[in-house]
Amino acid sequence: MTRTRLKKRLVPKLLIKHRLMGAEVLPVLVTTRKYGAARDVGNPVSQAKIYEAQLADELLVLNIDGTPIRGDAVMLGLIERLASETFMPLAVGGGVRSVDDFALLLAHGADKVSINGAALDGPELITAAAERFGRQCVVVSIDFRMEDVGPVVYRDRAAERTRWSVTEWAAEVTRRGAGELLLTDAGRDGTGTGLNCEVGRSVADLVDVPVILSGGCGLADHFVDGFVRGGAEAVAAGTFFCFRDQNPMQTRAHIRNASIPIRMET
Amino acid sequence: MIRQGTKRVGLIDYQAGNLQSIGNAFEHLGAEVVAVREAGDAANCTHLVLPGVGAFGFCADRLSSSGLTPLVERWALEAGRPLLGICVGMQLLADRSEESPAAEGLGWVGGSVRRIPGGHPEVRVPHVGWNTVTFAESCGSFAVGDEADFYFDHSYAYSDPTEGSTVASCRHGVTFSAAVRRGSVLAVQFHPEKSQEVGLRFLRGFLST
Q1: Predicted model pTM
Q2: Are A233 and B121 within 8 A, CB to CB?
Q3: 3-state helix vs strand vs coil in chain A, percent to 5
Q4: What interface predicted TM-score (ipTM) does this complex get?
Q5: Which chain B residue has its CA at the smallest distance from A177's CA?
Q6: Judged by CB atoms within 8 Å, which residues 26-55 of B form the interface with A?
Q7: Which terminal Cβ of chain B has fewer Cβ within 10 Å, N or C?
Q8: Phi and psi for B179 in degrees, rounded to 5?
């Protein structure tokens, strides 16, 4: 008997910035390259509906303005609309500082909450959130850059270096209760040159929670690599899903042809 | 005045569930949705839903201190009216859970909830994502076929409900109950409200009971 029939996940990543449009501040979907300047793409809600129709397994929504989620009516309103107009799982991050912030996002329709800088500032937040909401609700996002010493954890949109190696930090957050790890190679973000499967594999071999690999998808083959060589349970991509003109169902078919279990239809 | 034939779904609001998403799904299906914070709120409801997000002990404590337990017991066990448990709302039907050994479940279906063992690179815990649910014939009214993929997000699972109560199963390292039924009570470990078309079909099946 097969051990599991769990499918690998393809996760569109919606990077959100607040933009002043006339008199109103609106959430705008953007893409970035190597975590640099953002390029506006469009309306996140209409894009999410397209992704849903294309059988996205989950959505990852990240506010990259670095502003606190508490009191951010623009982000909270966006999450509420995504939850009411699509029927797929939502992981949300950006500006989350406390257990109350988790509760706030869940109340607006998020299913999972991603934290990054807050975990580095006070990793006890991971444990507190896992005890309150269950660890399946707690995603720890780890941004890294490749250096001579190996992959090093960075924070604040990969602008600031930390003292952590990726494997040390991954082990630490998992020990403290993280339910999933989102690993992004900032140097590959938006380049389409392929995922960092070596770092993905080193973390996947170390921890027993699912790893979501991100940063660098440009071809359907890159997803296959992430699952097979990188040991990922899920691959998240922003630019790939925003700008690819090839049919996403063809991408899925390509991945399935590589004997990777994914959903093809509902 | 409630229109004839309109379904009115009461979501048990005990401050431990994702009411928003479940409510959205039922509204999408044309039902009216109300939050049930006290027994009177359920007066005009046709269906009740017991959601649950969080640790087993947290949810059990909240349900107990909400004072709503007598309502759901009268509703489901005495009156035999339809109730759907989702995720920890399913696990609460057990006697207990390894997650919170000191907490007591409702015990309607018996048995216990255990941590999924994991321990293999293909069997990571939490169990997150779309997995195949195999339905028993007795669950045929839910119009999703013998097998369908639903979205799961959990670390603990119902391993040994009372014999005969499991109406759907799923495998992730171990085989566990994906759905149990006792009389008018149906409870699922997966999230139909997050399972796109197939999830909506499932919920429509529940509304037609």
Answers
A1: 0.96
A2: no
A3: 35, 30, 35
A4: 0.96
A5: B126
A6: 28, 53-55
A7: N
A8: -150, 140
